[in-house]
Specification:
Blueprint (H helix, E strand, L loop, with lengths): L29 H33 L3 H18 L6 E4 L4 H11 L1 H20 L3 H4 L4 H23 L8 H13 L3 H16 L5 H7 L4 H12 L26 H31 L11 H17 L5 E4 H9 L6 H16 L1 H4 L4 H14 L3 H9 L3 H13 L2 H21 L2 E7 L2 E7 L7 H9 L6 E6 L6 H16 L3 E5 L40 H30 L5 E6 L6 H4 L7 E6 L14 H13 L4 E7 L3 H7 L11 H6 L3 H12 L6 E2 L7 H18 L2 H9 L3 E8 L4 E6 L4 E4 L10
Parallel strand pairs: 4-5, 5-6, 7-8, 7-9, 9-11, 10-13
Antiparallel strand pairs: 1-2, 3-4, 11-12, 12-13
Length: 773
């Protein structure tokens, strides 16, 4: 037997557990602080390379001086980065404010726009002091997505004219009307530059092999602008013109009525605040999914106040209005940022670039910046958001908001969306349907919708159709019943029973609320406490149920109780097909209930289970096509965004690997052949200990024994096997697939997530972190 297959020496029954060793890479150590500083430095450079072309493009699209975009990037990075409540969010000139700012510049001029930016910043500062940031999150996501989609459509229409060599009009309708004439007579060189920019933007992240790995170092917007600049060399085309840096002129208030000025300030405040707060929440969630992410949630009121200070300073210095943006924030998180230091450093790099590389910036063709902003606008119209709002029956709100923004403006579009949302909410509250049907054993009264006082007359008329002395099932399918409806129903029930009839009040499918479930007494969607229904009967005289009858009893309980609840959702999944976001690869152990520990439902996870949660590496003679096929299908066809390998305590496969080896002349069994895929994990555990590299660790407590240690090491080893699969390696190199390790202790009901950089499994805490707002 080779050295890697030798089994570790058996330990005695009583094992002295040594204290958990402290490693130099523990949080707070100099090594860990140095590592965090390097990650922040790297992330700041990535965001800087993204922010420069984006800021110039947004300034061009608004009609403001081009240096205003750089000023907003500097102020957003340094001021908002230091004062904001979302450390990983990156602020600057934002796409959501482009249409609003362009309208202000055209209507009042640049100096007046700076004054309005200052007033909007002061308003944000006051709102932050009043601690109203959480109230902004009460607005329907359909309104927010519709607003961003309307802004994106307006941006794309306007910048398409610039790409074609023309100039945009002030309104989206005018741009749409003038588009056919512009398409008939395009500027050939500008169109070529725009096409090159769009092609590089769309294809940069999809480069295969080594080129794809290098592409991750350079952001796609910068690569597109560099390519377009190279193509435009030697041609006569409009380029960036940066004026010499000088003290900005003092802002002046526009000469307009007070209501008009108040509406302009309110529009900038609303859009900037909404985009900043929603982006902060999105970046916070993105960072929370990353191992080793900083703890604590975004402080939204502090973020709103920080944005207010940044807008005030930006207006004073002649910069564009500022808001936090999901584009730069998500790039910051994906680049590995761990603190606000990355955001501040990005602002410093932009400042140095504006002062030292102005000549290089003036080589950029304007058509490239317009194409960059156009693609950003198109991407703001997200089909994923459309499917999401359609699934929640809020597409009318989305469409009304989008149309209102395109036709009338941002503030008017949001007001339109709110009005439609209120109308739909009232309609759903008052829309109640009551039907009476005669069945073989009596009558059934079905109430669909919310049962409020407005539906009491309709309910009373329906109940009056039920003959006396009959059995009646009243099926309540809504989620709300007010006091008036309750009294009317109870009064009729008492009268019907007094005349010799029977009334059964139930939920969906008419099941009585207190009825027993037969073989299974567990209710659907309830906690798994006291799950005794599948255990043998305690009475010795009773005949115990067979496992088959228990299984059929569970299926019968599903059809009776759970199927009516999930039928609508499963019907939707049957029509639309599965779209899971994660591949979850775990052990076949019956105690590991994936839907329970991940709080997932139908369509959420693509799950692969096998003995020992093993991932055979590809290309070997003993590789397993079953697991490899599932991985390829999840990654290439389902396009999952993450893969999680989950081990668990008391794993029988790990115990078998640690056990005595079978005689060499014994015929291998299917189980022993399968467990060969776990031998690299066993060898890795032996190697770690023998070479003194430290052990894999659990946060909060030491590793209990060799079986648990091997289960932890096995998760790390199987992640390495996953990366050997070509489809996984390619998607991971593109940045569209992340891998996670997880360990679940069954007896403690505690999940741990792997931080690969530290070799430590960190406990997932159930209690929410305290939030200061």
């Amino acid at each position: 037997m080779s050295q890697t297959e030798k089994q570790p020496p058996r330990t005695s029954h009583r094992t002295e557990i040594p204290p958990e060793p402290r490693t130099p890479s523990e949080p707070g150590s100099p090594v860990e602080r140095g590592r965090a500083a390097r990650r922040d430095l790297s992330a700041s450079i990535v965001v800087f390379l993204l922010a420069v072309p984006l800021s110039l493009g947004l300034a061009l699209a608004t009609g403001a001086p081009l240096q205003a975009g750089l000023v907003s990037a500097v102020v957003g990075g340094i001021v908002a980065g230091l004062l904001g409540g979302a450390p990983l969010q990156v602020s600057g000139a934002a796409t959501g404010l482009l249409v609003v700012t362009a309208d202000l510049v055209q209507r009042y001029g640049w100096r007046a726009t700076c004054a309005l930016t200052i007033l909007a910043g002061l308003t944000q500062l006051a709102l932050g002091a009043l601690r109203v940031a959480r109230a902004a999150l009460a607005i329907s996501p359909a309104i927010v997505h519709g607003m961003l989609a309307g802004i994106g459509a307006t941006i794309a229409l306007g910048q398409l004219h610039v790409v074609l060599g023309g100039s945009p009009d002030s309104s989206a309708l005018d741009n749409a009307a003038a588009l056919p004439g512009q398409l008939a007579h395009p500027h050939a060189v500008a169109l070529l530059i725009g096409a090159v920019t769009v092609a590089v933007l769309l294809g940069w992240g999809r480069l295969p092999g080594r080129a794809g790995r290098w592409a991750r170092v350079l952001p796609a917007p910068l690569a597109a602008v560099l390519a377009a600049t190279a193509v435009s060399a030697g041609t006569e085309v409009a380029r960036v013109e940066l004026p010499s840096w000088r003290m900005p002129e003092l802002p002046v208030l526009p000469d307009d009525s007070l209501p008009a000025l108040a509406a302009a300030v309110l529009t900038v405040t609303l859009v900037a605040s909404m985009e900043s707060l929603l982006s902060a929440v999105a970046v916070d969630r993105l960072a929370a999914d990353r191992p080793g992410a900083p703890t604590g949630r975004a402080q939204l009121n502090r973020e709103l106040a920080g944005q207010g200070v940044a807008n005030t300073v930006s207006g004073l210095l002649g910069g564009l209005p500022i808001s936090g943006g999901a584009i730069r924030g998500s790039a910051n998180v994906r680049a590995g940022a761990v603190s606000r230091r990355a955001t501040v450093l990005h602002g410093v790099w932009v400042l140095l670039c504006a002062g030292l590389l102005a000549t290089a910036l003036e080589l950029i063709p304007l058509a490239a910046l317009a194409a960059l902003v156009m693609v950003v606008g198109v991407r703001m119209v997200s089909f994923a958001h459309i499917r999401h709002v359609q699934r929640h029956r809020e597409f009318p709100v989305y469409a009304a908001t989008l149309g209102g923004v395109v036709l009338f403006g941002v503030l008017q579009g949001v007001a339109t969306g709110i009005a439609v949302a209120v109308f739909l909410a009232l309609r759903r509250l008052t829309h109640t349907r009551v039907t009476v049907t005669e069945e073989a054993d009596g009558h059934r009264v079905r109430v669909s919708g919310q049962l409020t006082f407005l539906a009491v007359p309709r309910l009373s008329r329906a109940l009056a159709q039920v003959p006396a002395h009959t059995d009646v099932v009243v099926e309540l399918c809504g989620s709300f019943m007010d006091h008036a409806a309750y009294e009317a129903l109870q009064s009729w029930s008492a009268t019907h029973r007094a005349h010799g009839g029977r009334v059964t009040l139930g939920g969906r499918s008419g099941r009585p609320l207190a009825a027993q479930a037969g073989a299974h007494s567990c209710r659907p969607w309830t906690p798994w406490r006291n799950h005794h229904c599948t255990r043998p009967a305690p009475d010795p005289a009773a005949v115990p149920e067979s496992s088959g009858s228990q299984l059929l009893g569970g299926v019968s309980a599903f059809q009776r109780h759970t199927a009516p609840l999930v039928r609508e959702e499963l019907s939707r999944l049957a029509r639309e097909g599965q779209r899971p976001t994660q591949l979850f690869l775990t052990c076949a152990d019956s105690r590991l209930v994936t839907s329970m520990i991940t709080s997932s439902g139908p369509g959420d996870l693509f799950t692969v289970r096998n003995v020992g949660n093993l991932v055979p590496p590809p290309g070997s003679d003993s590789s397993c096509d079953s697991v490899g096929a599932a991985i390829e299908y999840a990654v290439e066809v389902l396009r999952v965004g993450s893969i999680t390998v989950c081990g668990h305590s008391g794993c029988g496969a790990m115990g078998a690997l640690l056990g005595a080896a079978a005689p060499e002349d014994a015929e291998p069994t299917p189980l022993s052949r399968w467990l060969r895929h776990g031998r690299p994990s066993l060898a890795r555990m032996q190697r770690i200990g023998r070479l003194g590299r430290g052990e894999v660790a659990l946060s909060g407590r030491p590793v209990s024994d060799d079986q648990e240690r091997l289960a932890l090491v096995n998760v790390m080893q199987q992640l390495d096997h996953l990366r050997a699969h070509p489809c996984v390696a390619r998607r991971a190199a593109e940045g569209t697939l992340t891998l996670h390790g997880m360990y679940f202790h069954v007896g403690e009901a505690q999940a741990y997530v792997l931080d690969e950089s530290a070799g430590r499994f960190c406990a997932v805490r159930g209690e929410p972190a305290p939030v200061t707002v």
